[in-house]
Amino acid sequence: MFAFIVRRLIGMVAVLFGVSVLVYVVFILVPGGDPAQRMAGKNPLPANITNIREKWGFNKPFYVQYVKMMEKAFNGVLPGKHGEYDILTSFQNRQNVIHEIKKGIPATMSLCIGAGIIWLFFGILVGFFSAVTAGRFSDRLITTFALIGVSMPVAWLAIMLRYYLAEKPANPVFPDGEYVPFSVDPVQWAYHLLLPWFCLSVLFIGFYGRVLRSNMLDGMNEEYVRTAKAKGLSGRRVLMRHVLRNSLIPIVTLFGLDFAAVLGGGAILTETVFDLKGVGWYAAQSVGDLDLPPIMGITLYGAFFIVIFSTLVDVIYAYLDPRIRLT
Amino acid sequence: MAEPATDLTPLEDNAALLAAEEHEVQIVGRSPTYLAWRRLRRNYVALFSLGVFLLIVIACCLAPVYARHIAHTGPNTIHSSEQVRVSGKLRQVVGGGSYYDAKTNTFVVRAVSVLGPTWWHAHGRFVLGADSLGRDVAVRMLYGGLNSLKVGIGSAFICSFFAIVLALIAGYSRGWPDWIISRFFDLIWAFPVLLLAIAIGSALQVNGFHHFGINIEPGSIWIPLLVISYVLIPYIGRPLRGQILSLREKEFIEASVGQGASPLRIMFSDLLPNVASTALVFFTLIIASNILTEAGLSYLGAGVQPPEPSWGNLIADGQDHIRTAPWLAIIPGLAVVLTVLSMNIFGDGLRDALDPRAKVRVEH
């Protein structure tokens, strides 16, 4: 087990290194042209451009540039250490990107915790019921809804929900936007987040329901289920203890990664439409201005969460299922 | 999806039974493709969905014809100051806004109101109304659909191609090529999909792409197309690689190696046909998810660039005028749902037809 964890951690560091190289390639090499010119912003002084070029080593070979970028990125994390022309300083308004991302974390965290609970609970419920009633009318109804759920463009669903449930009615059922911090008023916090939670969950509920349904239908044919039935266990016990438990394993993996993605700013569309000033919202704001440093920062931040969570999921897995440790 | 019960049709795939059903005395061997086609042919819901999807594709391909001969306008032509005759009455395409009233010597500000759907009362002009710049929404919907479908289907092709080739190389060679390719999948897998797509998409919008002899200008439709195909490669590549790895150990591959078949031959004529059905199912499902991703990217401004329409752009445009003209946002969204849903249903049906075990395995 210990060896497995060590191996997995080394793998994690390797992937994080790969992530940083990819980010470097995407943001510095691919756009081409003179990065210094772009970083200097609108109407730069020639001295500024040379200054940036010197500081960043844009006149040096690419590996020197990469090392410099990572140096800057790590320095940017420490408060007060970021220089004037950091890669993690927005081109547009000179704000420190790390600082701005930190500001967005509470809203993003609130969104993904609530939505995560909702989508996991209803996803399992939907999958379970349609598997149990497979082939019957209720199953068809549920699977149809699940399919519609996974076919929804999130942005559009969010716009429709927000307009017809919060904006348009004279006495709206739901409040329109505005994030209330949990520490200020937990009830209002939840009330204001209900619509975004629902909107974000729809796609996942449909997806998880479909995955669980097919897993359970496959599971019902396994030999251990036949054995359990032959032992004389009640149908309910077989279903809950044997079939469902085993079918939930892939759901746990999916949940770990999806949760990390949302935490890492993956809920861009929901956050943008509902004006939730989280990490994803910040990314969306920067897209319009082609302001690359925030997007770069958030991409690194999102990948960081996913890599950590997937390592965590793997370790939990290895703990639950000893066979995995060997591979 | 609307397949009948899992446990009601366990024996349906038996070739002998199928033959008996046709009242044939002699049992005829049938190819797996034929059997799959037979199963698909009976799945009316899936066929209907395919029909709907093809209809949408054809409608969007006819966009230039519709624009020239029915609507008499282009997708980006602005008619804001014009009037059209709707049911015999002249109506402003875009009304309101602020104007100077000389009589009272003041600026009058009125809410901008755009022409609503005229259906057929304007003889084909502004069938679905106008947007705030006075552009014909129906024409933009069709051209937007054309762009969305180009991105969706085009990137599904590119993505599947690279995923299949990479999975074949990894699964056939094992060893270090497999290690490198798997790490490459891991790397893309390590980002939230939409975030990575936005990151690459917006980085490419700065100057376009001018490396390796490829020149793509910023604003080109190739940017979202290539970005989406790139970020979704592991979603097809990973499962295929797993399948190929296990197939690689089978006796028929050993036999092929023993006969002295070249690696290319083993990859493409032994391994590929065995994963073709999986790849086909993934291909249909990935079209659906690509269209959704395109809508998200374009909505955020990192996909198809305005004024070029796409369904995602039209949703974003519509959001700005949702109070006065809600149909501007509703219509493109419905188009996306319909297209994606039809492709998802067809993909499900295709999977059931190609892999009968998935549902027949119950009770054996």
Topology:
The complex is a heterodimer of chains A (327) and B (364).
Chain A: H1 2-29, H2 35-39, H3 46-56, H4 62-77, H5 97-132, H6 137-150, H7 154-167, H8 186-219, H9 223-230, H10 235-266, H11 268-273, H12 279-288, H13 292-320, H14 323-326
Helix pairs in contact in A: 1-13, 5-6, 5-8, 5-10, 5-12, 5-13, 6-8, 7-8, 8-10, 9-10, 10-12, 10-13, 12-13
Chain B: H1 15-21, H2 32-42, H3 44-61, H4 63-71, E1 83-86, E2 89-92, E3 94-101, E4 106-114, H5 137-173, H6 175-189, H7 193-207, E5 209-211, E6 214-216, H8 222-231, H9 233-248, H10 251-258, H11 263-300, H12 311-320, H13 327-354, H14 357-360
Antiparallel strand pairs in B: 1-2, 3-4, 5-6
Helix pairs in contact in B: 2-13, 3-5, 3-13, 4-5, 5-6, 5-8, 5-9, 5-11, 5-12, 6-9, 7-8, 7-11, 8-11, 9-11, 10-11, 11-12, 11-13, 12-13
Question: Can you tell me about this structure?
Answer:
The complex is a heterodimer of chains A (327) and B (364). Chain A has 327 residues and is an all-alpha fold. Helices cover 76% and strands 0% of the residues of chain A. Chain A contains 14 helices and no strands. Chain A has helices spanning 2-29, 35-39, 46-56, 62-77, 97-132, 137-150, 154-167, 186-219, 223-230, 235-266, 268-273, 279-288, 292-320, 323-326. The longest helix of chain A has 36 residues, at 97-132. The radius of gyration of chain A is 24 Å and the shape is globular. Chain A starts with a helix and ends with a helix. Chain B is mainly alpha-helical and 364 residues long. Helices cover 62% and strands 9% of the residues of chain B. Chain B is built from 14 helices and six strands. Chain B has helices at residues 15-21, 32-42, 44-61, 63-71, 137-173, 175-189, 193-207, 222-231, 233-248, 251-258, 263-300, 311-320, 327-354, 357-360; strands at residues 83-86, 89-92, 94-101, 106-114, 209-211, 214-216. In chain B, the strands form three sheets. In chain B, strands 1-2 form a two-stranded antiparallel ribbon. In chain B, strand 3 (94-101) and strand 4 form a beta hairpin. In chain B, helix 4 (63-71) packs antiparallel against helix 5 and helix 6 packs antiparallel against helix 9 (233-248). Chain B is elongated and about 95 Å long. Mean pLDDT of chain B is 77; it is low at 1-10 and 359-364. The chains are: A mainly alpha (327), B mainly alpha (364). Chains A and B meet through helix 1, helix 6, helix 7, helix 8 and helix 10 of A and helix 6, helix 7, strand 5, helix 11 and helix 12 of B.
